[in-house]
Amino acid sequence: MKKREDSIVGFIGLGLMGGALAMGLRKQGPRKIWGYDIDPTVIKMAIDRKVIDEGAFDSEGLKKMLPQCDLLFICLSPKDALVFLTTYMEHFKTGAVITDITGVKEVIINNLGNRLRNDIDYIPGHPMAGSEKEGFGNADDSIFKNRNYILTPLPTNQPENIELIKEIVTDLGFNHITETTCEIHDEKIAFTSQLCHVIAAALVDCEDDLSITDFEGGSFGDLTRIAMINAAMWTELFMCNRKNLLNNIEKFESSLEEMKRMIEAEESAELIQRLTAVREKRIIMGEIREAKNLKKE
Amino acid sequence: MKKREDSIVGFIGLGLMGGALAMGLRKQGPRKIWGYDIDPTVIKMAIDRKVIDEGAFDSEGLKKMLPQCDLLFICLSPKDALVFLTTYMEHFKTGAVITDITGVKEVIINNLGNRLRNDIDYIPGHPMAGSEKEGFGNADDSIFKNRNYILTPLPTNQPENIELIKEIVTDLGFNHITETTCEIHDEKIAFTSQLCHVIAAALVDCEDDLSITDFEGGSFGDLTRIAMINAAMWTELFMCNRKNLLNNIEKFESSLEEMKRMIEAEESAELIQRLTAVREKRIIMGEIREAKNLKKE
């Protein structure tokens, strides 16, 4: 793999995440940045703002762009990323390092099968950052500061290419990188991300009083900010990780049911004990996270 | 009721909330501030920091304090507030305005019955602010800025006394005051506050991996911050508002169940429609709240 300053970097999809990643990469001084988006006005905006040097918005443009890119970030939804990878497989540059940012990982790997060329290095990734806002116009690379990045390398990945991705994302602001398998990623993410979004959505869904915020002290706002969801994208993530998500919804439902039962039966002593354990567990979870932040600052 | 500058104000309980309210009241220049707390070291700290002028930490002290107070804030848990009101009813100053800050309201009113003296004016209240921290040492009156205050006046309350409380809490930083009944308060609060705390606790409860934050992008942190709960206080709140809370848990469970069913049945189109409606509802809820903030600034 070439050094970053000698590399041509490409972004497939210049939405909120693709746009922010390209903005961050710009500061790392690659030789050239290419951007692809189906919306030509986004390409124009990205060139005007000097986020990318050259753009493509159709298949013809892509076929010019892809053979030049030493490093490629696929910033699409899982299904679109899969379609893109299979459709343009023959156009990637020999030796290219390709990564993606999809929120679920198994669906891509399992469906790519043996179509992955062995002269390119595809390293699946997942930056744990985002916003309830959407699109290139809202892109801002400060969202990466102190966030987690997850890499789910394949057995065939070159160590030096994994190292390169790690250096790039560290310089983007991410402060904790976890390497794991696609399988473990999807299990864990079903809890931390997808279950949380389902809960937030259900909480808004079940309340009809639009002025309910008259009675709120912060909790409702905190729990439901992520309910301002991109419905199509999240439905796709939920469906792609269906089994893990259903397991996690059930896991949560049974804890909720236990607490409901204690309240119903007025088992105060038991509930105090349970809530005390919850408090301690959550404090430890926070401290483990905090220690990782401190280490990297 | 006397003017604020001529009044002697008392605080019963100098915890996080009582302490913060006393700090805020100090800036409003009352003639004198009294504080009661069972912990003498808290009283000493509050006097040293000039938050209160004189303190009491036992029944004898209270019997000296209460007959002097024109305005009294009871900053205790619901059950302790009820015990305090009934135990010291005969010691309140004639004409005193008394308010409280408990998170549930019916339990106090329903149990006080006809023991409430008719020469004092008890106006139940609920400041919708707080912190996962506890105690006077963490008290800080900046937590009131732009928060909601709920008053649940009784039919016997004097309009000028309700007005006085509203002026005081507005000057404390609260920017939206809702007047409602104890019954409606308890119904609404079961959703915005107690249900949210039960959900946060269940979400931490159901996860065993203490390093789960390696996989988090902000959602899990936002949803579970309030799981660092004062177990005894919240158990009391849950039990005092048991029926409303159980109704709200069930309301939430059925929305969650609906979404789970759609994911299970892979009903993508239906789920996208539902999540789109959720997004729109949450945006409107936020805008209604925002409009109230702007009005008061």
From TrEMBL, chains A, B:
<dbReference type="Pfam" id="PF02153">
    <property type="entry name" value="PDH_N"/>
</dbReference>
<dbReference type="GO" id="GO:0070403">
    <property type="term" value="F:NAD+ binding"/>
</dbReference>
<keyword id="KW-0175">Coiled coil</keyword>
<dbReference type="InterPro" id="IPR008927">
    <property type="entry name" value="6-PGluconate_DH-like_C_sf"/>
</dbReference>
<dbReference type="InterPro" id="IPR046826">
    <property type="entry name" value="PDH_N"/>
</dbReference>
<dbReference type="InterPro" id="IPR036291">
    <property type="entry name" value="NAD(P)-bd_dom_sf"/>
</dbReference>
<keyword id="KW-0560">Oxidoreductase</keyword>
<comment type="pathway">
    <text>Amino-acid biosynthesis.</text>
</comment>
<dbReference type="GO" id="GO:0008977">
    <property type="term" value="F:prephenate dehydrogenase (NAD+) activity"/>
</dbReference>
<dbReference type="InterPro" id="IPR050812">
    <property type="entry name" value="Preph/Arog_dehydrog"/>
</dbReference>
<comment type="similarity">
    <text>Belongs to the prephenate/arogenate dehydrogenase family.</text>
</comment>
<feature type="coiled-coil region">
    <location>
        <begin position="242"/>
        <end position="269"/>
    </location>
</feature>
<dbReference type="InterPro" id="IPR046825">
    <property type="entry name" value="PDH_C"/>
</dbReference>
<dbReference type="Pfam" id="PF20463">
    <property type="entry name" value="PDH_C"/>
</dbReference>
<feature type="domain" description="Prephenate/arogenate dehydrogenase">
    <location>
        <begin position="7"/>
        <end position="293"/>
    </location>
</feature>
<dbReference type="GO" id="GO:0006571">
    <property type="term" value="P:tyrosine biosynthetic process"/>
</dbReference>
<dbReference type="GO" id="GO:0004665">
    <property type="term" value="F:prephenate dehydrogenase (NADP+) activity"/>
</dbReference>
<dbReference type="InterPro" id="IPR003099">
    <property type="entry name" value="Prephen_DH"/>
</dbReference>
<protein>
    <submittedName>
        <fullName>Prephenate dehydrogenase/arogenate dehydrogenase family protein</fullName>
    </submittedName>
</protein>
